[in-house]
Amino acid sequence: MKINKLKICAAAAAAALLFGGLFLLLCDDVQVKIQEEKIKPFVPDFTLLELPESSNSEEENNAEIPSEAEEKLKEQTQELCANIDNSVGWINIPDTKINYPVMYSGDNEFYLHRAVDGSYLRVGSIFLDYRCNADFTGKINVLYGHNMSDGSMFADVMKFIDSGYFDSHNYGWLTTKNAVYQIDFFSLSQPENYDDFYDVNSDVNLWLDSLRERSFIWRNIGISEEDKFISLSTCTGSEGSSRTVLTGRLCKI
User: pTM for this structure?
Assistant: First the structure.
């Protein structure tokens, strides 16, 4: 009798854990949908841009953006920042799921598991390292996002490990209140989370030298002293300290 009771209790506990997990996942999905609806009115209209053809050539991959489109995108981002506290811009990579507002707070913990409105959300938000300038005027800018199993947030960064995918998705967009940037991606690396790569206040030339040594994909794009950079960082896997980082040059339109 005791053995049967133990089996029944074990089965009940397993069922409770299973349904509890399903309930949490369902709640997460519902909360994600709620947050998507909140930000929908402020999504920049990237169809305004004359998107460049994917190319390995720096010259061929520069976009010609109408001034009206640039001003419209800045206005839309200003509206976003006016309505969503702590939002500082929007990151978009065509033909991927990466299309999110960029958040900024006083640390690198707050938005790990918080939605743009500050409520708890397991998938978190895309956010800028707090040591960077909120207006992206610094030389080194690092964005963080989770590698979600459903392909959301920065999960698509992992696809850039494939050199063919990298070559066909080698640009993106960043909008802020005052500027529209084309991002020319040139590096895919996998540093550890404690690596000096994440020292955003380091000398940019030393940072670039170190990044090149760590990169297993590197495009020569003719970097100059005036250039600024942005890196998209996510966990390589569910365990361990490895990060996968996609880095590009910020080119102001």
Answer: 0.85
